[in-house]
Amino acid sequence: MNTTMRTICLVFCLILSVSVITSCKKGTPIPATKPEAQGIGTDGQVSTEMEGLAENDLLDNAGKDDFSLMGNQDDEYKKMYGRSTKPLLPVYFDFDQFTISPDQGERLRQNARYMLENPEVKVVVEGNCDERGTSEYNLALGERRAQSAREYLVQLGVDPSRLRTESYGEERPLFPTSGEASWAENRRDDFVIEQ
Q1: What pLDDT does 75 receive?
Q2: Which residues of the chain have pLDDT under 70?
Q3: Three-state secondary structure along the chain?
Q4: Partners of 91 in the beta sheet?
Q5: CA–CA separation, 71 vs 54, rounded Å?
Q6: pLDDT at site 142
Q7: Are 1 and 9 spatial neighbours (Cβ–Cβ below 8 Å)?
């Protein structure tokens, strides 16, 4: 009997969560200049095709990405860019680590090249973690990850005044399912251009 009640409650919560998330996506304001340039159809709805959007269309006025739009990206796009502003690339970390591994150094070198070629660009390095560990621990780990990437970029010649860090810990998983494949994608720093 207990198992049946838990299953019913779990299914009910899942249905409720999906309906809340779906209704939230429909009410998200979209910054618009020209509907066709923004990927918005004549009915005012956001197109699921994101290729027509400019790089900065995923950002709101505070420089944060619009998660309802980001949710429309396919998994391959998310694996390539995370929540980073194109053409910047995310860097990934091993479990419970904040040091930059040699295989992620090239991604940071590409980000540094872009920033050096575009001196007006300011970037927020956003540290993220997988769901394991306490919220407090993961916020601290996310900050160490963001600081590690920031220091790496500074060593490559990027002016430190153009970089700031922010930690989200486990609070914003890009891949919300449990398991090593999702956790590995969620252990990352994103590089978001500030507006």
Answers
A1: 85
A2: 1-72
A3: CHHHHHHHHHHHHHHHHHHHHHHHHHCCCCCCCCHHHHCECCCCCECCCCCCCCHHHHECCCCCECHHHHCCCCHHHHHHHCCCCCCCCCEECCCCCCCCCHHHHHHHHHHHHHHHHCCCCCEEEEEECCCCCCHHHHHHHHHHHHHHHHHHHHHCCCCHHHEEEEEEECCCCCCCCCCHHHHHHHCEEEEEECC
A4: 189
A5: 16
A6: 98
A7: no
Q: What's the rounded Cα separation, in Å, for the pair 83 and 173? A: 10
Residues in the chain: 195
C-alpha distances out from residue 177 to 33, 130, 150, 161, Å:
36, 10, 29, 36
Contact 192, 65 (CB under 8 A): yes
Amino acid 20: pLDDT = 37
Contact 151, 189 (CB under 8 A): no
Distance CA 61, CA 73 (A): 21
CB 166 within 8 A of CB 63: no
Tokens linked to 120: 């007006």
Q: Which residues on adjacent β-strands are paired with residue 128?
A: 169
For residue 124, the Cα-to-chain-centroid distance in whole angstroms is 11
Question: Domains in the chain, ordered, with CATH?
Answer: 85-194 (3.30.1330.60)
Q: Are the beta carbons of 186 and 179 closer than 8 angstroms?
A: no
